[in-house]
Amino acid sequence: MASGNCEALKGRQLGQQQATILEAVAVPEKDGIPAYCHVNVKLNDSTLRFEGRLPLSGWNGKMVALGGGGYKGEPFPPTRPYFSPSIVAERYATMATNGGYDAPGARDAKYFRAEFAYDPVKLADYTYLSIHRTLPFGKELVQAFYGAAAKKNYFEGCSAGGAEAMMLSQRFPGDFDGIVARAPAGNFMGLFLQFNRISKAVLAPGGALNPAKQKLLADAVLAQCDAMDGLADRILSKPMACKFDPATLRCPGGADAGDKCLSDAQVHTVRTATSGFSTADGAWSHPGYNVGAEDNPTKGWGEYLWPNPNPPMSGRSLQAIFSEGFVRSFIMRDPNLDTMRWNPDEWRAPLHVVGTMFNAFDPDLSALRARGAKLILWNGEHDTAVSPRDTVRYYGEVVKKMGQAAADDTVELFLAPGVGHCSGGTGPDRADLMKALVTWAEQGTPPSRQGVVHTGLDSAGKPVQTRPMCKFPSYARYKGAGNPNTAESFACSTE
Ligand SMILES: [Ca+2]
User: Measured in angstroms, how far is the CA atom of residue 225 from the centroid of ligand 1?
Assistant: First the structure.
């Protein structure tokens, strides 16, 4: 569809003088990204803003809103590697918010501090309102530029953006026709309390495993469980079925006796990381993380769980830094609090106040279902930020609440073996979930019947591995013969 004049949008008001188009600049085609009108829209009552990308030609008539990540503070562009490639390639109009406030760059500062949490408007925007509040202006922008409304509106996000996806499906089910939730952190409070709990074990004296011990642990897990999926390929395709006991690696007597065994403190760390917990009142809980990829420094336990000597971690873990920022800024309002000595059970009231703003774990998706909208849940099996076990738990609660048939109308869950947080890892990590979602929403065929595969890319971006993307609880099981790098050699199995 033909577009209007990009630059002419600048200065225009949207809504009833509620938002201003601050910038509108035509960006020429580059590196395979079709030319688009870049638009920056700010709400007049707050620091909430969003950036739009409106294809200058060939618009497909639809819009995708994109979620952010971490503590946000900047709009995430559709070119992030984990977003579905069809969003750019098929020329959707897109919009992405800053989460309610601007804090570009400086990742480490954002991990440590979240001062915006002290401002009630910014806090509400960040925790649950930023997409819902900007969507009407995004729709108006599309109408103004193309002279027509988008035929369909979709959403995709990962991590905190996945939490936004769950939030929208539960609290604002009328906003989108379909939603992709990757690594969805809908259990925000439980996740950060689990980060705090695991950090205490990891950062206790002698609690961390050095790289040699990480490999010892990873090799022992693989020796026990790698072939359970029919193929010893160093990828656990059903890690939740692996019942590994770290005490089998315990040093005689329990004191640290070198790299060939684990001390009692280290056995405790592994048990803590792989076990669930609940606050004493039962209000907040988390099921822990999967075994596997314990020695992967960037996409496995090394990504969020192990201490990292490099800045911004500087000897701590991302779980420690993120949870410290969270507890200090959102719960305790104390920038100097020692979170290693903090006990969540003593702070029931602030946990309730903050947790209920963030919480996106309501298993009742009946409102989404009633209007025929669809939801895809997706999680890497070795994600040490958003646990696949938590996403499995949520899906199980949806099935219990709605019944399997009604759940199948609305939501499908897919796990990606060997994959870390949002993307990356030893397993194939790419899947065009937006394409699968749109096919489901508009043609009625669910993703599990579309033959979707996970694709692994080499460092040059060339596809080198495919595996079937299997609807939970099935997983990709090797048939016993054939090329282990092609999807045809695997079947989705529940055995
Ligand atoms: Ca395997």
Answer: 7
